[in-house]
Design goal:
The protein is about 30% helix and about 35% strand. With about 280 residues, it is an alpha/beta fold. The protein folds into 2 domains: about 5-80, Alpha-Beta Plaits; about 125-275, Rossmann fold. It has a 7-stranded mixed β-sheet, sandwiched between helices. Strands 2-3-1-4 form a 4-stranded antiparallel β-sheet, with helices on one face. The radius of gyration is 19 Å and the shape is globular. About 40% of the residues are buried.
Length: about 280
């Protein structure tokens, strides 16, 4: 299937670029590249892009000057496009996320090899970057981990490198699951099971750590299941939302025995770490 490339220039860029990424990710766009003056977004050509442009960019609600250019990338050129745009990502001194085609580059910390294809999760986006950093800064890595909305599988790979012994990586898109499996193989992972499905795949399982980098509304819909599946004193790491959403999410978790223990923020995006309070059996 061909891919739509939507190039958007914004004046001013901030904060509208991040807001637009959140809007487009809810409407079928699955990959994004930040540029100096806006962003480039990608989706399958089955998505009604003209309608989305009308409802998001041309509806008069964004007080910003917009220049839009839409083009079609033939399917066979997708990987070439990613290779041209994909640069190594450094998660401080903890890790370097690279693609298989990166050669002879400086790396720091753990090296994670990710071929993104059309899945989300390369470390370039602020949410993936923060989630990766948060994983490295955990006091310890639990044995049983859930990576919900795994995308490329990058967070599951990091969890295994940090000592997790059984990881369930779930995504609703079959092509993301295939991509995640390919990336776990690239990193010689042995403890990750990649599954196509939704929140129903979580029911009946227990985890010491749950990681979910998904948009806010889906996180809220899943939250009770996350709490039920999380062991007492287990850790829940969430991202995929803005810093302005922190209070709403924290308030939403109060009745679920989840206590906020840490917050990371990067360029208007946020990551929250929760600990499940000990409850009576």
């Amino acid at each position: 299937m061909d891919t739509v490339e939507l190039t958007v220039k914004l004046i001013p860029k901030d904060p509208w670029s991040d807001i637009l990424i959140a809007e487009l990710s809810d409407r079928g766009f699955d990959s994004f590249v930040n540029t100096d003056d806006g962003l480039i977004a990608y989706c399958e050509d089955s998505v009604d892009v003209d309608k989305i442009i009308s409802e998001t960019l041309l509806n008069g609600k964004m007080t910003v000057d917009v220049d839009i250019y839409k083009s079609i990338i033939p399917y066979q050129n997708w990987n070439a496009k990613w290779e041209a745009d994909f640069q190594p990502v450094y998660i401080e001194e903890y890790a370097t996320i690279i693609a298989p085609f990166h050669k002879e580059i400086e790396t720091k910390g753990n090296v994670v090899i990710i071929q993104p294809q059309m899945s989300f999760g390369t470390g370039h986006h602020q949410t993936t970057w923060m989630m990766t950093k948060a994983l490295f800064e955990l006091d310890n890595m639990p044995e049983h981990v859930l990576d919900m909305g795994t995308g490329t599988g990058v967070l599951a790979v990091v969890a295994e490198k940090l000592g997790a012994r059984e990881i369930l990586a779930i995504d609703i898109e079959d092509w993301s699951v295939i991509n995640a499996q390919e990336n776990t193989d690239r990193n010689n992972c042995k403890t990750i099971t990649c599954v196509c499905g939704d929140i129903d795949k979580v029911i009946g399982n227990s985890f010491g750590l749950i990681i979910a980098n998904i948009n806010k509304n889906i996180l809220k819909a899943h939250m009770k299941t996350y709490s039920n599946a999380l062991l007492n004193e287990g850790t829940l790491l969430l991202s995929g939302f803005f810093s302005s959403d922190i209070d709403e999410i924290v308030e939403f978790t109060k009745e679920l025995n989840l206590e906020k223990t840490k917050v990371l923020a990067k360029d208007e995006w946020a990551c929250i770490q929760f600990t499940k309070s000990k409850t009576d059996l």
